[in-house]
Amino acid sequence: MEAFAALLDALVYTRSRNAKLKLLADYLRVTPDPDRGWALAALTDGLDFPAVKSSTIRNLLTERIDPVLWTLSREYVGDSAETASLLWPEPAQAPSPPTVSEAVDALSRMTRANVMTDLPRLLDRLDAEGRYALLKLATGAMRIGISARLAKTAFAQAFGVSVEDVEEHWHGQTAPYAALFDWAAHGAEPPSSQDLPLFRPFMLAHGLEETQVDLADYAAEWKWDGIRVQVVRAGGETRVYSRSGDDISGTFPEIADALHIDAVLDGELLVRGAHQGGETGGAASFNALQQRLGRKTVSKKMREEYPAFVRLYDALIVEGVDLRPLPWTDRRAALETLLPRLDPERFDISGVIPAADFAELSAIRERARDDAIEGVMLKRRDSPYVAGRKTGLWYKWKRDPLLVDCVLMYAQRGSGKRSSFYSDYTFGCWDGDPDAGAELLPVGKAYFGFTDEELKWLDRYVRNHTVNRFGPVRETDRSLVFEVAFDSVHSSKRHKSGVAMRFPRISRIRADKPAHEADRLETLRGLIRD
Amino acid sequence: MARDFSWIRPEPWGIHVVPADCWIDPARPVDRALVTHGHADHARGGHGQTFATPATLAIMKLRYATEDGAVPVPYGERIALPGDVHATWIPAGHVLGSAQILLEHAGERIVVTGDFKRRSDPTCPPFEVTPCDVLVTEATFGLPVFRHPPVEQEIAKLLAALAANPERCVLVGAYALGKAQRLIAELRRAGHRDTIWLHGAMERMCRLYEEWGVDLGDLRLMSDATKEELAGSIVVAPPSALNDRWSRRLPEPITAMASGWMRVRQRARQRMVELPLIISDHADWDELTQTVVDVNPAETWITHGREEAMLRWCQLNQRKARALALVGYEDEDD
Fold it and tell me: Which of the listed residues A223, A237, B120, B237 has the most CB atoms within 10 Å of its CB?
């Protein structure tokens, strides 16, 4: 546990990606099995101990310290595990830390009935750093800037294998990844993935920014406003995976039930709807899709009201043939050949935009005010399907955002590296004419879009303009105007203002603008196209 | 009749001692100021008269280049002020010259701690517990998560990082008054005899400490060093210089910072620190609460810092307490 705790702390304080990779790779190389496997799982969010939750930590601590002092401490530190590791009474005896495997073993044997007595015993064997590592491991909320991708890259670096191979073999393996370490560290055969419906890493796009591309080399497609999914069938089973590789088959059973050909397909999950023009078999806005997201099970009514389908972008594997090394044109042809064999109710294809040159594409993009369209994708015609974001192969050219001027109403302290900073802002628009006594109604919340310098400024502004405090939230004097950028706005019964913004972010701080000149709700309502 | 201690009045810009018409650590110029210690947010310039310990006045003279109106008051000397008020400066253990101020009037005793700590510090005399009716205490680290580890442990951490990276240097951010000198003195106490290199902004204050009898060993200016000399050495700079262009001249510096805030990981991350050293010149939670117990005042008034948790602790321990809303004290760099 000491080595893992030291690794965690070193990772917390290391900023450079290369230095992080080296720390992780060194750890993976020298740490024995199965400790390194468990540690890797913990770092990539792969461990789950049902008896130990964030609330368990709080309950454990508030048995030992005044709840108000716990809450004040937790708010300041911004992280439950760290707060608890610091508040935990130092044990009388010298620490006798367990190994990572021993800790995992003990944690997995804990139940709701005994966690309140067994977890303290483990904590009493550790010092503050060890307690932090243990609680992080137990609750799975690392928040130390280690993405799964970074961990896999470190794994590849540790054993001199390719990161694509790691990604491929990783999925379907479970902690502590014995077969993966046998393969990479000891030269055994890689774990087999032939007959399993495994996730394959997605190919991703860069923002287009100022670049212009030649449409002779690039094909243009609409970027649909749903969620990116991969539908995989192998060994008689079908799975739907989200972009992060989470299995969401249970949320969208009609998709999982509709594929009967062994294949790995890449597309956009959408919900059928009537209010968008353009393509045949239209899709509804993201708002409609949202009704279906995050549900473990889905009712018949839900499925009928919001029927899901996948608009296909690409084919990775079809009937045992790996198409990924082939150019996009060949994969596209294979996808078009496959399409007639798929259930038309559940699958269609994302059309290629017929533009002769970049200027024409630009004009077409400008005219596309369809709510289901987020922008345009540009895909290099000769590019293979490669995992991750490779420069020059795929670009996304997003639609320009909508803008509205709002007034800062409440600010909340952030968490993680923004703990102690007021970094989450709730802002509002005027419900009528402010000079005739209209009020501000909250219309959205944003916590990014500003630089670190601006954050410092905003934090000071909030502290100096506070009129009320509610725990971690401060109400401000409603004097600061934000230009808020957002992708779309929808009507919402859940909000008093009746509107909900999609993807709002702070575009500019308008310290120069008087609050009463901010926009009115009617402006925002005028932008709704549900 | 319940005592209301109305002869001392907290205002947002300082504590007003009404019968004597003087102010403790005022944030704006006044006719008569009683200053606890030399940090800029407590010891501002421009007062008519400034009462403080001789060391604090020396620090202020270094900073403001004037000693007009300076009235030196040695530790323990009870002086008479107008309005039948008596004042005594008592060691606070915070930095060189730092003091608590005991005020006496009409049979009542009020102690203003200023900034203080209870741990040993080779650069200043230790905090003295002073019985009183009202304790006006700071609360910079007034949250139970702040438990500063022993300073020896943090010094060992620093020396270990230095030994493990002979080709690099360790750049330590430390407040120019107090923290830097204590850090250097603690390094010397731990047996580190090598030259310690200073950022230019540190030099005069270190020399002043030496004049006041604090031995800091071999100190030289970083600007006089070659890259070879700096490899394997410690460089001390003000926190603001850590990620400045200035540090580019150093051989692959390991960025360290000596501060009580380093206890919280994300605070260290916010400062881009790789080697956090939890060394503070302020009392931690245990010292703050123990001080209230030791002094055992009838009332505790809590000034700058995280006063909510201290208030809660007082309430849980059946102690009368209130929070004062004073402005202008900065705690970010300790």
Answer: B237
Residue whose pair of structure tokens reads 């002020």 in the numeric block: B81
pTM tops 0.95:
no
Query: Would you state the CATH architecture of domain B8-145+282-323?
Result: 4-Layer Sandwich (3.60)
Q: Is the peptide bond before A190 cis (omega within 30 degrees of 0)?
A: no
Q: Domain range for residue A421?
A: 402-525
CB contact under 8 A, B312 and A65: no
C-alpha closest to that of B97 among B204, B259, B213 = B213
Q: Are strands B22-24 and B70-72 parallel, antiparallel or unpaired?
A: unpaired
Q: What is the CA radius of gyration of chain B?
A: 20
Give the angle subtended at the CA of A72 by the CAs of A70 and A74, to the nearest 5°.
Answer: 65
Q: Which residues of A touch B273 (CB under 8 A)?
A: 13
Regarding beta strands B170-173 and B70-72, do their DSSP bridges make them parallel or antiparallel, or are they unpaired?
A: unpaired
* Continuous H helices in A111-241: 115-123, 128-139, 148-159, 163-170, 178-186
Distance CA A354, CA B84 (A): 93
Q: What does the DSSP 8-state code read for residue A293?
A: T
Q: How far is CA A147 from CA A3, A45, A460, B174, in A?
A: 20, 9, 31, 33
Instruction: Tell me which residues of chain A have a pLDDT lower than 70.
Output: 45-46, 141, 143, 145, 193-194, 274-281, 369-372, 415-417, 419, 530
| CA of B113 vs chain A CAs: smallest distance (Å) | 23
**B151-277 fold:** Rossmann fold (3.40.50)
Question: Is the Cβ–Cβ distance between B250 and B242 less than 8 Å?
Answer: no
Same domain, A240 and A357: yes
Among A7, A61, A68, A129, most B C-beta atoms within 10 A, so best to mutate, is A68
Interface of A with B (CB under 8 A): 9, 12-15, 65-66, 68-69, 72-73, 76-79, 82-83, 86-87, 416-420
Q: E strand or H helix at B54, and its extent?
A: helix B54-64
Nearest to A73 among B144, B270, B316 (CB): B144
CA distance B244 to B259: 18
Q: Closest Cα to residue A370, out of A497, A277, A508?
A: A277
**Which of A14, A65, A69, A75 is best to mutate for the B interface (most B CBs within 10 A)?**
A69
Measured between alpha carbons, how far is A278 from A370 in angstroms, rounded to an integer? 8
The answer on A416 and A387 residing in a single domain is no
pLDDT digits (tens, 9 = 90+) for B220-263: 999 999 988 999 999 999 998 887 777 778 888 899 999 999 99
* Residue A64, token pair as written in the block: 């030992």
* Token pair for A362: 């630009």
Q: How far apart are CA B260 and CA B147, in angstroms?
A: 9
Amino acid letter, residue A383: S
Q: Select the residue of A13, A77, A86 nearest B273 (Cβ to Cβ).
A: A13
Distance from CA of B275 to the nearest CA of A (A): 7
Domain end among A365, A398, A431: A398
